[in-house]
């Protein structure tokens, strides 16, 4: 009886399914907990030079989106001796900060406030995503590199002193603890974002103990992620490979100084510092800013003509929205920015156009769905 009833059952199921109302195409991508939609406070540091111009661009777009964030704004400048205590308290309370570039004076006297923030908040992982934007011509295609950089030690430890006049000793500090946790972060990032490969960048052929310890830590962590391919590359060869065949790289994990060089090289290949997002994250806090070097911060021409490129900070703020668990707002912002870039009507000078910052912002707001 059961076998004879199967054809009838299949017929009933097929006929009933053909008369049902079609389901909506939009799927549930994020199921919030009660209260997740409450606006979140974010510490905002406009910074120096073009910083206020591009952070204002983010403020305008967030307002147009009705994004569930509000900003606590503080004036911080690179020539200050320290980050003001009230700013640190705000970041520690809010857990999240968005900042423009801070200039770092050359030579002695004033230390980098960027480094101070990373050390005091233990923002041990710097992440820069370097990728091709559709419609933006570059020498190489299919570039999508994530540089994960150790952010608290290495040459940036700042342990320098003058032994005798004319002789300065600078110490590079590499610890197993910091090397292991940055390696773990890189592999976790790769695992959670469906990345296939992690490449450790080093100079262990010369710095056998320091970079050797970094490599040893990466190898140990790699054994816990068998589904992700792991390889290693010497930093000088890495730079050569980046400019000749960048599409071979996926996620790269590096000590502090190498990461700065590699991230800026990759950014230049993929479209320039004006379009690459980034962030610094630790166990408790995160700061989002332009991903590659903020060397354009002090460009007086960009400031006077109001033609600074806001794309990098807009994409960084999308990263921030995703970090705050507002994925649909992040998707809307990223989609709008990429649409404006691909159409090509509104681009700043660094991308081959003649638009002002405000014209790009208006175009992004107009592209929001």
UniProtKB/TrEMBL annotation:
Annotated keywords: Magnesium, Manganese, Metal-binding, Mitochondrion, NAD, Oxidoreductase, Transit peptide, Tricarboxylic acid cycle
Top-level taxon: Eukaryota
Biased composition, class Low complexity, residue ranges: 13-27
Family annotation (InterPro entries): Isocitrate_DH_NAD (IPR004434), IsoPropMal-DH-like_dom (IPR024084)
GO molecular function: isocitrate dehydrogenase (NAD+) activity; metal ion binding
Localization, UniProt: Mitochondrion
GO cellular component, one term: mitochondrion
Gene Ontology terms: biological process: isocitrate metabolic process; tricarboxylic acid cycle
Pfam families in the record: Iso_dh
Keyword Acyltransferase: no
Signal sequence region: none
SUPFAM superfamilies: Isocitrate/Isopropylmalate dehydrogenase-like (SSF53659)
Name under which the protein is recorded: Isopropylmalate dehydrogenase-like domain-containing protein
Species this chain originates from: Salix viminalis
Lineage: Eukaryota, Viridiplantae, Streptophyta, Embryophyta, Tracheophyta
